[in-house]
Specification:
Distance between the termini: 165 Å
Number of domains: 1
Number of strands: 2
Strand order of the largest sheet: 1-2
Structural class: mainly alpha
Protein name: Fungal N-terminal domain-containing protein
Organism: Podospora pseudopauciseta
Number of helices: 6
Largest sheet: 2 strands, parallel
Strand content: under 5%
Shape: rod-shaped
Amino acid sequence: MEPLEIVGAVAAIGQLLELCIKAGKTSTQLVKSFINAPAELRNLSAKLASLQMIIQQFQALGQDLLMTGVEDILPATHKDMLLSSLLGSERALKNLTTLHNTAGQSSTPKPGCNFSRRLLWSLIDKKRSTMVIEELRKAEMVLDTVMLILNTRLNSHIWTSFSAMQLAQQTFRADFLQSARDVKTIVEAQHYTISEFKANADHTLLSILQLQTENDIKVQVTLLFIKSQLITIRKGLHTSFRAWSAPTSN
């Protein structure tokens, strides 16, 4: 899509990036086409390269946000401002391209830009070069303002995303700790149940042993009693037998 086709409509971030890349390439070629290129041109070329990276960061941020696209984090007013600054830079570069093509030529220049010839900037017509430099300076100032605004918004969204990630991590940590506490409670309850069962089993076994001991004692006492009774009976029978077998006197 050509720049004139997106004027009057809200430009998509991809179109703005394409326009920025195109202007950046033109500025780089112009810097190389002049010997001792003016600082304004070099500065503008560097600013366009920086702006390209900012736009690409907005694209990357929009791709990372699943529920919110880049069109939402960069409002229409910012896009219009960005488009206006890029169109201003493009006009300044176009005028400089025309100046390059016509410098030192008496004939009508051909369309396009012939960057194969390197021209000495100091030999360019002063009046025309002054006008072009002023355009470049204004375009650079506009880009400075736009980049400041975009950087502020970009950093704000990055910080918001970082804060949201921190909050999610804190929530996850809290849920994890609560789950760990629940598991610990269950384990402790099971441990208490096992301990209680073991204590009850020990108590039951001890009771059985005590009961068995008591029964053994009772059995022994009973046996002793029976034995003593048997001895008593035996003695009585022995006495009776002796008395019966003794001779009687007439």
